[in-house]
């Protein structure tokens, strides 16, 4: 059993915790936060072993195998670097870092210290998408020629605090939600991006983008359009489409959904799966990688992370 500590106790952390509870090979071991009272509250709520007042205490605990980072983007690089130097494996919420060269340095550091490093993209581990990919490989829609995916949500309806980091230079719609369609497209294209045309637009005088669209071409000839926006709502927040020569798949809320639709001529077939949490599969995958002494995932590898940065124009 692999022991995991969650670092950073914002909104996303609870979903990570729930996902961990459904994993067979990962044990939710503890929490670390600048607010020790908050870490203690989480410890009691989730019945874990430890609450830490300092990340240094985590490094000194030999029982801790991996740290799951749920902290702001701009902190990731230094936090990952420090954890790897202290020989702790790391799973980091997307986006892991902001530049491709940072990925190179961190994965090299993981290799040097013989620990595991992975960017957390639950889209690539969704059991529904795994099932759809299997059906595509079996010829369900023929040869893929085009992928279309979106994730959009009108954040202005949430009464946002524009002083938060997500609206700063390290944030933006492309990094916050644009990575979902990017990961979806790359996952099904199964090929490197050879060209892309990206447009972004902002909101008022904020330094980040509020709308993003990327037109992609892959080495194998597949074309794709991916986009995200904080300026309007979409049903399900977005849908992914995979078009082939014999039909297409429509997948609402593809990053966490449990149902997809296969359309072939005038026939529609519903595909459903069930799972504990949309975070469980990626956490279970990471646990098995760590148990096997892997340095990186064969699904969310260094190369996969670099291709997602390329798709959203951050490379």
Tell me what the structure shows.
The chain is α/β, with parallel strands linked by helices. The protein folds into two domains: 126 residues, Rossmann fold (3-Layer(aba) Sandwich), CATH 3.40.50.720; 151 residues, Dihydrodipicolinate Reductase, domain 2. It has ten helices and 14 strands. It has an eight-stranded mixed beta sheet with strand order 8-9-10-7-11-12-13-14. A six-stranded parallel beta sheet has the order 3-2-1-4-5-6, with helices on both faces. Strand 2, helix 2 and strand 3 form a beta-alpha-beta unit. Helix 4 packs parallel to helix 5 and helix 8 packs across helix 10. The longest helix is centred in the middle third of the chain and has 14 residues. The two termini are 36 Å apart. The mean pLDDT is 97.
């Amino acid at each position: 059993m692999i022991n995991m500590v969650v670092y950073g106790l914002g909104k996303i952390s609870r979903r990570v915790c729930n996902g961990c509870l459904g994993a067979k090979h990962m044990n939710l071991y503890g929490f670390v936060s600048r607010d020790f009272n908050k870490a203690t509250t989480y410890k009691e709520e989730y019945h874990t072993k430890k609450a830490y007042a300092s990340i240094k205490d985590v490094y000194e605990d030999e029982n801790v195998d991996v740290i799951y980072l749920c902290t702001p983007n701009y902190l990731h690089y230094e936090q990952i670097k420090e954890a790897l130097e202290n020989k702790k494996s790391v799973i980091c919420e997307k986006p892991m870092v902001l530049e491709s060269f940072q990925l190179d340095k961190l994965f090299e550091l993981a290799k040097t210290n013989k620990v595991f490093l992975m960017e957390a993209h639950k889209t690539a581990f969704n059991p529904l998408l795994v099932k759809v990919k299997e059906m595509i490989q079996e010829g369900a829609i023929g040869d893929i020629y085009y992928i279309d995916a979106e994730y959009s949500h009108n954040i202005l309806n949430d009464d946002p605090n524009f002083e938060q980091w997500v609206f700063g230079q390290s944030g933006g719609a492309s990094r916050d939600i644009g990575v979902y369609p990017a990961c979806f497209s790359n996952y099904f294209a199964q090929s490197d991006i050879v060209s892309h045309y990206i447009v972004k637009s902002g909101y008022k005088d904020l330094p980040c983008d509020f709308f993003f669209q990327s037109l992609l071409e892959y080495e194998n000839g597949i074309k794709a359009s991916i986009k995200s926006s904080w300026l309007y709502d979409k049903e399900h927040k977005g849908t992914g489409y995979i078009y082939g020569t014999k039909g297409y798949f429509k997948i609402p809320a593809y990053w966490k959904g449990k149902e997809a639709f296969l359309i072939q001529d005038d026939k529609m077939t519903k595909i459903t799966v069930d799972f504990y949490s949309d975070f469980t599969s990626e956490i279970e995958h990471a646990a098995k990688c760590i148990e096997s002494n892997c340095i990186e995932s064969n699904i969310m590898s260094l190369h996969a992370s670099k291709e997602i940065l390329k798709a959203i124009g951050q490379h």
